Each structure stands twice: as C-alpha cells, then as structure tokens.
Amino acid sequence: MRVIAIANQKGGCGKTTTAINLSACLAEKGYKILLIDMDPQSHASIGLGIEVYKLKKSMYEVLIQPEVGFQDIIRKTEIPGLEIAPATIMLSGAEIDLANVIGRENVLKECVQGLPYQYDYAIIDCPPSLSLLTVNALTAADELLVPVHTQYFPLEGVKQLLKTIDIVKKRLNHKLRVLGILPTLFDRRTNLSKDVLDGIRDYFRDKVFNTVINNNIKLAEAPSAGKPIILYDAGATGARDYRSLTKEVIVREKEIGS
Q: Phi/psi of residue 124, each to 5°?
C-alpha cells in the first residue's frame, strides 16, 4: 500500500478537491482506495456524501483512543473500491489531546500500519496548516502531493512547506518524497494565471505535474452534491483533468517504486 499525503498550509488551493477526485479516479481504474480525512473541517467527508454530524466515531477517536481502529469508522462511498475514514469537528481537539503523548508525531503512522492489506493507496487530506495533524500525515506518508493555486504565486508558502518536509524527512520519516506539485484553479483566459504557471514550472521544474487543474464550475459544484466530479459530471473539464492527473500519479508511483 502506498500512502500519499495531500498538503498545503494555504487554504483555497484545491487540496480537498484533489484528495476527493484523485481517490475517485484511482478507484475508477480498479485500485482499492482509503481516503483519510485529517482536516477538522471534514470537507473530504462531506464531499463524498458522509453526514458527519451523525457520526459517533471518526478520525478523532482513532488518534486518541487506542481501542478504536480504522475498522470502526471506515465508510463505503458511491464509488466501488473507494472508502473513507471520515473526520468531524472533534478532530480540532486532537492536537491538545496529543500534546503530552510520547511519540505524538507517529500516532497516525502506527494506525495506518495496522490497516489490512486490502488497499492499494491511502490518500490523506491534510488541514490547511503546518500543524501536528499535518506532521502526523507527513510522518505516515510515502509521498507528498502539493496543490498550488495559480491565481497568485504562493512561492514562500510552498518553500516553507518544503522546509517542513525536509525536517520531517530528517527526523521522522526518511522515506518521504515529493510526488509532485500540482497547479490548480488555472484560468486560461488570464495572463496572470499563465505567468504564474510559468513561474511554478521554472522554479519547481520536473517536480511539477504536466496536468493542470482548470477552473471549472462543475468541479466547484460537485462537493455540494456529495459526489466526486466523475459521478457529478463525467464529461466536465474537471473530470478530464483529474483523470489525466491520475494517470501521471500512477506513472510516477511506478518510477519511484522501481
């Protein structure tokens, strides 16, 4: 099983949208996927149709209560092969509860290692911050995918994230690698988006995916229906973009694994 964390401390960059739709497109190709929602906002859970306010157990209990495991919270989705470990707002208290726990950065990793070998990929949707929850995700992950907004150039924020990755790699997770930088919310009508995309490619070079996620109204609407884009509108630009990204991810994973 490969574990991919999707992270950027900047909100509004398409992080959760990518987590949902990459997971769905991988499942569409026949892989067995577990999407782990590590964001207290629960947007990945809501975006896959989970009624989070009805949940009695979620990722908070998995992290805090040793007797609760993934098997107690995992829910199926409308996509065959895609399951989700949902989050609720309770997860926002996990950082306080873990503060005095020995090895607190490794709690999620230990939980993930206890997963059954039925999954090909675990995708972790991180909160929009460099918090203990994000550090847990980076410690548990094999690779990191970083969505970057193309309406402005958040270079300093991504630089800070990459510095954090270097620290995590040195101290907590030697195997962690950057799978790729993903340009998102691209508006091909504006020179600004084109200039920003050129800047991202110039700076990050071969780390940048060839796929660009275009601004797409159907992609923005899909979470309100609790569906990934391939169910909400399979012919939309957003569906095409995420299917393209999925192919690239599979190729890069094979290259890393070889």
A: -110, 120
Give the separation between CA 12 and CA 128, rounded to whole angstroms: 9
Structural domain boundaries in the chain: 2-257
Please state, in angstroms and as integers, the Cα–Cα distance from residue 242 to each residue in 23, 87, 89, 97, 116, following that order.
10, 23, 28, 36, 27
* Residue 85 phi, psi (nearest 5): -100, 100
Quick check: pTM over 0.90? Answer: yes
Domain 2-257 carries which CATH code? 3.40.50.300
Question: Is residue 118 helix, strand or coil?
Answer: coil
In tens, the pLDDT along 176-186 reads: 999 999 999 88
Buried/exposed code over 145-166 (b: 16+ C-beta within 10 A; e: otherwise): bbbbbbbebbeebbeebeebbe
